[in-house]
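re: ur question from yesterday

yeah so i grabbed the chain u mentioned. its 174 aa long if i counted rite. heres the sequnce exactly as i have it in my notes:
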Amino acid sequence: MTYTKGFKSNMVRRMAHPNGISATSLAREVGIPQQSLSRWLRDASVAEEPGNSEESEQAMPQKRPQDKSAEEKLKIVIDAETIPEEQLGAFLRLNGIHEAQLREWRSMMLSGLQKPERPSSRPGKDTRRIRELERELQRKDKALAEAAAILILKKKVQSIWGDEDEPTDKRSGR
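ran it thru and got these structure tokens back, copy pasting raw so excuse formatting
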């Protein structure tokens, strides 16, 4: 069904008003699908942004909440703190987010500002086990290096003095 611009703007005004009604409640009241009302509100908020004309039918849809950057989320959280409680619903609708998302973003921001927990001074079982394994690995590396050195020395001795299984040279008489 086609609705006039005046009717649409009246519905948007009712939703965007500081004490505005939700799109779901308004849909029940006037018998228009909630999705249509939400789209009208979203289109109206995009048209109000600088550089957009209200006649623009090809307005870009507003970003989904999960597509917003960290800076945008931070700005929304800060702006929401300055808005009186009775106007918060309209603010959230204008930004296309739910109150639960705002609470989640606020907690994310606060958790990012908290000091990281210091690990306990007493090492845990895993830490002790790692140290033991590292010591054992170092001991085995030293033993392997010694064995390699002994093999190299043995080869050098054989090349200089010859193999003990080979007969001695007849000229030397030994």
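noticed a couple things. Residues 1-62 form a domain with the Arc Repressor Mutant, subunit A fold (CATH 1.10.10). also Residues 53-60 have pLDDT under 50 and may be disordered.
anyway ttyl
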